[in-house]
Every structure is written in C-alpha cells, then in structure tokens.
C-alpha cells in the first residue's frame, strides 16, 4: 500500500494524522479513498473536477509533481510515497 503524507493545515481534516497507508492503484483512487475515510471537508480540498487533484493542493509522487506525470491516472505501488501539500498563493 502506498504511503500518504499530509502537510500544512490539511491535518486539521485528518484528525491530526500526518501519515497513512491507503490501498489504491493510482492517484485518483488514493484521493477518493482519503475522501471516503476523512469526509467531505478533506475530500473537497483533495478532489477537483473529474476526481483529479484539486486546484488548491499539490500532489507529489516520490517527489515528482503528478501534474507532470499522468495526473490522476498516475499509477502508485506499495513502495511509493504520495505527498499532499496545500497550494501556496500570494503576491
């Protein structure tokens, strides 16, 4: 099962969990599983249109941005680490 690590304020929605293992075969399934486990508050931040990563989070698979890979269809394996970081914005 891939390891998922949460950073920043996202842990408010996970009951303080910073790390979890999720059974999934791609990024989309991982985000859907996290949404089911932790509820709509986290799910609304994780999932965008078409169950792709949401606009205000960045998802990295083994330190590579999944947007530069296959997006939500990026495969994950038991030895992978998925890092979810809230997006930063400002001027």
Features:
single chain, 91 residues, alpha+beta, Ubiquitin-like (UB roll), five-stranded mixed beta sheet, 2 helices, globular
Q: Numbering strands along the chain, what is their spatial order in the largest sheet?
A: 2-1-5-3-4
Count of β-strands? 5
Shape: globular
The CATH class name reads Alpha Beta
DSSP summary: helix tally: 2
- Runs in which pLDDT lies below 50 for 5 or more consecutive residues are none
Distance between the ends: 39 Å
The tally of structural domains comes to 1
Sequence-ordered SSE layout with sheet pairings:
Elements: E1 3-6, E2 19-21, H1 27-38, H2 40-46, E3 57-61, E4 64-65, E5 81-86
Parallel strand pairs: 1-5
Antiparallel strand pairs: 1-2, 3-4, 3-5
Task: Please explain how this structure is put together.
With 91 residues, the protein is an alpha+beta fold. The protein contains two helices and five strands. It has helices at residues 27-38, 40-46; strands at 3-6, 19-21, 57-61, 64-65, 81-86. The chain has a five-stranded mixed beta sheet with strand order 2-1-5-3-4, with no helix packed on it. The N and C termini lie far apart (39 Å). The relative contact order is 0.25. The model has no long low-confidence stretch (mean pLDDT 92).
Q: Can you describe this structure in just a few lines?
A:
The chain has 91 residues and is α+β, with helices and mostly antiparallel strands. It is built from two helices and five strands. The protein has helices spanning 27-38, 40-46, and strands at 3-6, 19-21, 57-61, 64-65, 81-86.
């Amino acid at each position: 099962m891939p390891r998922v690590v949460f950073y920043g304020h996202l842990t408010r929605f996970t009951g303080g969990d910073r790390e979890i293992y999720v059974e999934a075969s791609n990024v989309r399934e991982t985000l859907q599983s996290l949404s089911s486990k932790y509820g709509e508050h986290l799910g609304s931040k994780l999932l965008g249109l078409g169950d792709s990563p949401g606009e205000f989070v960045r998802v990295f698979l083994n330190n590579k941005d999944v947007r530069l890979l296959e997006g939500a269809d990026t495969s994950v394996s038991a030895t992978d680490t998925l890092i979810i970081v809230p997006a930063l914005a400002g001027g």
